[in-house]
Amino acid sequence: MAHGTAHIGETAWRTEIMVGGHAITADEPEALGGQGAGPAPYDLLLASLGACTAITLKMYAARKAWPLVSVDVDLRLKGSKEEMRIERKLSIVGLDEEQKARLADIAERTPVTLTLKSGLGIETELV
């Protein structure tokens, strides 16, 4: 499965992440005391869902040999902390309405979508 690390040092909120062999910098916006050097944690969550959605839909269309031109995924985190939800809008080019509807249905079952909808246990230990 996946593995990642995150390191924060003396610079306020700037966090260096290594995941899948890729370096990512996360930070908070200046309005929250950060430097805006990278996406904030919830931005990374949306990025993960958006990437999984786009990739899964493209893979499905390729398997079906559908003439998909592009998929755009627009994501917004909405609500309060108690009732948070993600609004996802798909823009699909190159397919007919039936194919688009099928991809919208598939979007509800992408791996990251299912993980977010079902919740995920987290075990924490000091080392």
UniProtKB/TrEMBL annotation:
Give the matching SUPFAM superfamilies. OsmC-like
Q: InterPro entries, alphabetically?
A: KH_dom-like_a/b, OsmC/Ohr_fam, OsmC/Ohrsf
Which PANTHER family does the protein's record reference? OSMC-LIKE PROTEIN (PTHR39624:SF2), PROTEIN INVOLVED IN RIMO-MEDIATED BETA-METHYLTHIOLATION OF RIBOSOMAL PROTEIN S12 YCAO (PTHR39624)
Q: What is this protein called?
A: Osmotically inducible protein C
* Organism listed in the record: Novosphingobium lindaniclasticum LE124
